[in-house]
Amino acid sequence: MEEALFVARLGREVGQTDFVKLEVIPDPNYLFPDGAATLEAARLLVEDGFKVLPYIHADPTLAKNLEEAGCVTVMPLGSAIGSGQGIHTSEEIKIIIEQANVPVVVDAGLAVPSDAAQALEMGASAVLVNTAIAQAQDPALMGAAFKAGVEAGRKAFLAGRIGIRREAIASSPVTDVPNPVPASS
Asked: Is 94 a catalytic residue?
């Protein structure tokens, strides 16, 4: 945590921005964030005038606590950083989005544009993608594909999806059909 605070303050001193992506990651193997240390560091950085964008587990309680501490967004992970596993935390992310009064940016683990579309379809404000584009065989083409995925996901969210049902419902009209064909007996 001390390193995160030092780097944020150093960045501001050399004339960069007050925006800081906060990553408190004690585990070098899986790169999962430390929620308690992230919350503590976020509080200190907000008090120091920073606009904090914390990278977190998809934990709705932690997300709400960070928002209440003054963070300008929350950034729940989809899966482990650079893993390319896609979004494994969709139910938790949906709760975070439902409760949030700040933008929700899905970060980490996204591999293909459909992952970005899924995040935006859930109502996320944005996604943060690095490895999937940087390590693609054609990074420029993959970047363009992610842009299309984000745009499609946002449009789908705004259009409103149909409800999920257990049973089937006929999608073709059953009344007011011109010249209906009588059922055979």
From this structure: no
| Six-digit token string for 1 | 């945590």
Q: Where in the chain are the domains?
A: 2-159
Sign of CA dihedral 60, 62, 68, 72: negative
Q: How far is CA 103 from the centre of its chain?
A: 9
**pTM of the complete model:** 0.81
Question: Which residue is catalytic, options 21, 51, 64, 94?
Answer: 21
Which regions of the chain are under pLDDT 70?
1, 173-185
CATH number, domain 2-159: 3.20.20.70
Structure-token pair, residue 143: 């970047």
Instruction: Spell out the residues 6+ positions from residue 160 whose beta carbon is closer than 8 angstroms to its own.
Output: none
Rounded (10°) angle between helices 139-159 and 113-121:
20
